Amino acid sequence: MNILLINGSPHEYGCIYTALQEMAGQFEKRGARAEIFWIGNRPIQGCIDCKSCWGKGKCVFDDDCVNQCIQKIMEADGLVIGSPVYFGGIAGGLKCVLDRVFYDAKRLFAGKAAAGVVSCRRGGAGNVFDQLNKYFTISSMPVVSSQYWNSVHGDAPEEVRADLEGMQTLRLTADNMIWMLQAAQAAKAAGILPFERETRVKTSFYKP
Prior knowledge:
With 208 residues, the protein is an alpha/beta fold. The protein has 6 helices and 6 strands; from the N terminus they run E-H-E-H-E-E-H-E-H-E-H-H. The chain has helices at 15-29, 66-75, 92-105, 125-137, 157-161, 164-189; strands at residues 2-7, 33-38, 78-86, 89-90, 113-120, 151-153. The model has no long low-confidence stretch (mean pLDDT 96).
């Protein structure tokens, strides 16, 4: 069982890494393989809505981590995405990555368990948590819940580690993801499979 944890912070070993590391340890404790993937801190091209990716599951811009992310998500059983809070929103570089990752490839992620993780000094965590979950819920990805929203507070890794409730919440999220994936495996072994999906219907609201 493979879990991919995406570090969407420009700081490789900052607060988000600390939060994801806590989850990775819990995943490994439950017998899963966990990989923390850092998107880096170099400029990342945003989505330009060119539609070149449609039907390919691959972005036309191939000089950053986006296509690597797509491949890693496809190979994973579960996905965790972590973002710091910048001005009450998702980190800019991560937003560029996720818009391009999910634009066409989201159809390839259906059924993969997913969870968002947020780190903030004080406020804005709820906004970012909501943004992250929107990528999952448009992609037929079951969202893993916990005892509270998946956020930790602190301005430095040692402060995040001192957020005992936040860290416990993340460990429970990891446990719930493993349980969800094990339940899905058991269902498949018993012949209980997802229903066949209808052909996607897209409705525009403009009427000439």
